[in-house]
């Protein structure tokens, strides 16, 4: 993902915004049953180079992780204020399509969406998921792309052999959420999609990447230190570029201390140091978002990172955190939504505002807010 196109003077202005900075606004994007699926979950979002906002999700036939899921899309041409009707852009009969994760290549403007196909006879917890690439019980990964700002999409391309290890891995999961494209350092231009792999309970995080604008893909090494006793600490994961071109992963916790798990790669996601705790970011075990807002502005000159997730021991109290030092500290935070708050994904909107697409009570909701609101003192109440 590209950072917001915001200049240093503008950032300085919004960071000194008064307490009456605009409060967040909210609208519902996907609604279970109203959008023709019993359950709609797993948001992903992309603001394209032309300024269109694309919101993706899984449409499910039942309240289950694998329930003949299809990949849905809604588009917005006005910065997320209004949305098109839901459209199915990927389906595969009784098989389930999971984990949408999107990225746009900046030179070609081609938009990529990865997802996995789970055979109809399997669940993530099934003991008979096969490793390798052949046979009916294999998790597979597919890639679709759009060259017209999300209006039409290519047929699905099976890229399983490029993103999955031939032995050991059972389940695979892209994101869910967003990928990134590196903008600095020797690996400038690299596309990165964050991944995890099973077996269930023994997950690993790693990066899938392309150095030829998405024509071919490869995978890096697993992050060390994932296991905590008999269960892995890590699971669903997002990645962000730091000011020196290195890559930080930020993972859902599944064991040990209930905080986010992080590691930093200095070779574009090929290798990682051992995963460690990020004590400033609580985690009730949920997919969350880490996002580069800018490379400029903020104290220290390292730009601004944002994080969205529940600041709670439950999936509620959705909070936006801000860091000025590449995630070493998170000194600023504001509650965006005090109610039910599940999976969330951040994006930068054409006007420099921030968008957060998040799950809440059977719906997927979109919020718009400013850096000024985040840096200032919010009002006691806000319209929800």
What would you say this structure looks like, in words?
A five-stranded mixed beta sheet has the order 9-8-7-6-11. Strands 10, 12, 13, 14 and 15 form a five-stranded antiparallel beta sheet that branches. The chain has a single domain, classed as 6 Propeller (Neuraminidase). It has 384 residues and is mostly beta strands. 4% of the residues lie in helices and 42% in strands. It contains three helices and 28 strands. The two termini are 28 Å apart. The longest helix has 8 residues. The C terminus is likely disordered. The protein is globular, with a radius of gyration of 19 Å.
What brief labels describe this structure?
five-stranded mixed β-sheet; mainly beta; disordered C terminus; globular; 384 residues
Strand content: 35-45%
Lateral arrangement of strands in the main beta sheet: 9-8-7-6-11
Q: Report the helical percentage.
A: under 10%
Q: Using only CA atoms, what is the Rg?
A: 19 Å
List the total number of helices.
3
- Give the overall silhouette: globular
Number of strands: 28
Instruction: Look up the CATH topology.
Output: Neuraminidase
Corresponding CATH architecture: 6 Propeller
Q: Please, how many domains?
A: 1
Low-confidence sequence ranges: 6-20, 377-384
| Structure class | mainly beta
Note the main sheet. Answer: 5 strands, mixed
Q: Tell me, what is the CATH class? A: Mainly Beta
Could you report the average pLDDT, rounded to the nearest whole number? 93
N-to-C span: 28 Å
Characterize this entry briefly:
By secondary structure, the chain is mainly beta. It is 4% helix and 42% strand.
């Amino acid at each position: 993902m590209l950072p917001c196109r915001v200049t240093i003077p503008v950032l300085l202005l919004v960071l000194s915004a008064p307490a009456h900075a605009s409060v967040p606004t909210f609208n519902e994007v996907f609604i279970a049953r109203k959008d023709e699926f019993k359950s709609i979950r797993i948001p992903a979002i992309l603001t394209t180079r032309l300024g269109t906002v694309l919101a993706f999700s899984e449409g499910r036939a039942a309240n289950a992780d694998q329930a003949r899921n299809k990949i849905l899309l809604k588009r917005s041409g006005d910065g997320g204020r209004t949305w098109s009707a839901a459209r199915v852009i990927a389906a595969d009969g009784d098989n389930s399509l999971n984990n949408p994760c999107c990225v746009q290549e900046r030179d070609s403007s081609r938009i990529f969406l990865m997802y996995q196909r789970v055979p109809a006879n399997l669940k993530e917890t099934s003991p008979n998921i096969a490793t390798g690439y052949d046979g009916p019980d294999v998790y597979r990964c597919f890639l679709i792309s759009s060259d017209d700002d999300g209006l039409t999409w290519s047929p699905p391309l099976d890229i399983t052999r490029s993103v999955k290890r031939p032995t050991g891995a059972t389940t695979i999961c892209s994101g869910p959420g967003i990928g990134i494209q590196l903008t600095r350092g020797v690996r400038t231009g690299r596309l990165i999609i964050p991944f995890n792999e099973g077996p269930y309970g023994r997950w690993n995080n790693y990066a899938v990447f392309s150095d030829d604008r998405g024509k071919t893909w490869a995978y890096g090494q697993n992050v060390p230190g994932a296991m905590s006793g008999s269960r892995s600490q890590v699971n669903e994961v997002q990645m962000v570029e730091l000011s020196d071109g290195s890559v930080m992963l930020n993972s859902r916790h599944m064991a040990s201390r209930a905080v986010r798990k992080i590691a930093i790669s200095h070779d574009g996601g090929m290798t990682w140091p051992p995963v460690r705790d990020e004590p400033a970011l609580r985690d009730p075990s949920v997919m969350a978002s880490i996002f580069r807002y800018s490379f400029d502005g903020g104290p220290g000159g390292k730009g601004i990172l944002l994080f969205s997730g529940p600041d709670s021991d439950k999936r509620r109290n959705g909070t936006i955190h801000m860091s000025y030092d590449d995630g070493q500290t998170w000194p600023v935070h504001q509650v965006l939504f005090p109610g039910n708050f599940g999976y969330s994904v951040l994006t930068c909107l054409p006007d420099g505002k921030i968008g957060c697409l998040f799950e809440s009570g059977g719906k997927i909701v979109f919020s718009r807010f400013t850096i000024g609101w985040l840096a200032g003192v919010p009002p006691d109440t806000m319209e929800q």
